[in-house]
Structure formats: C-alpha cells, structure tokens
Model the fold of this input.
Amino acid sequence: MDSAVTVGKRTISRDELLPLLSGYDLWPKLMEGIVLDRLLRFFDCSFQELEEYYRLQVAADPEFFEKRKLRMKEQGVGADDLDFFLKRPVLLEKFKQDKFLPHAERAFLDMKAGLDRVVFCMIRNRDHELLRELFFRLESGEESFENLAPKYSEGREAFSRGQIGPVELRLLNPALARVLATGRQGEIKQPVVIDGYGVITQVVEKIPARLNDAMRQKITGLLFEEWLKKEVETFFY
Done:
C-alpha cells in the first residue's frame, strides 16, 4: 500500500486515512463495496440505461458524464475503473432485481405479519402503580391519551400526545409488537411491563401490508440487505 493518497490538490497519509475511516464509520460501507464489486463486475448496462438513470443530472448539465469522470479521476480512480464506477448504481440495481425480486412474493408471505403497519396510542412510565391508576382513568373514559401522555409518558410519544405511527410492526420492540398485533381497534390494553416500563396501549388503526409493486421493491431491498450482511461477515470474518 502506498504511504499516501492524493485527493485533488491534497495528500493524505496512510496514518491519517485509516483513523478517519474508523472515526467517520466508513469501514462498513467500504467492506460492503468490496464484496459487491466482486459480483457487479460481471454485469453491464447499455448507454441508454445509463442515460435513463442519470437523466436529471444530464438534463441539468449535458457534460455531466465527462465532469463526473474527471472528478473520480482526481479522487484517485484509475482509468480502467471510471466506466465501472459510473455504471455501478445501475449495475447494483440490476443485481438486486435479478437475484432478489423473484423471491419477493414468497418472502412477503413469510414477513407479512411484521410488514403490517399500526397506528397506536401509548403511555409508558416506570411507576407501575401510577400507570395502573392511569389505565383505570383511560378505561372509564375520564381521561384520554391525548391529555395524559404529555404529562406522564416517559417516551417520545409524550411529544405527540401519545400517538405513534403508522409504523411497521417489525420495527417495534417485539414484546410491544405482540401486544399491538393482538389488540382490537379502540381497545385499551391492560398495562404490561416492557424493558422495565409499565406500558398502556390502544390500537387506533391497523393497516395490512399489500403485495404491490412498491412492496415488491421494498422486500427486494430487505432481502438484499440481509444477504449483503451475511456476505460481508463470511468474506471478512
């Protein structure tokens, strides 16, 4: 490895560069790129596909391709790699569509429960006795989440009057997701303990996931991310 790299008119030493990669958390992205590029070099795309991908940039500047290549060259990209890195976003999308899109429908069936979205109200507090009192006040109709959450909830929902969502169930704490998945719309669930907090919830709306084109692309992306994580682990560790 050279003792220094040149970027534009600046020279950065190896001893300076490595801590920067770590400090800016760039190693994971670099590792992913190394793994991916070994495969993407087997793909290619037409100039028409390239123009379509960069259509907004080309419309704004007809010399976009030439300027992009010049900038990459100034940043240390070799002449043999300029076309590859220019095409890389297109090649990456082709790879995703070829490898993962055919599995999207089956994956949707496996993942659907977690892809369903929910809008819900919540109050959480470490004082379990207080929370039980709040539950009875909510259940009786004496009070509402809108009024109580800003005063008593110890989570981010305090700033949204107790309401959260819509959010996919897979993105929530698993214990909370189970409570919401079994809750009926409008039902105020009895307090449960999650991570030390007493938690009261009420489902406002359930939004079932549907397998449309947008969902297929979303699942394709999720499958790709899962695959890439495993490939990086295998390649480097």
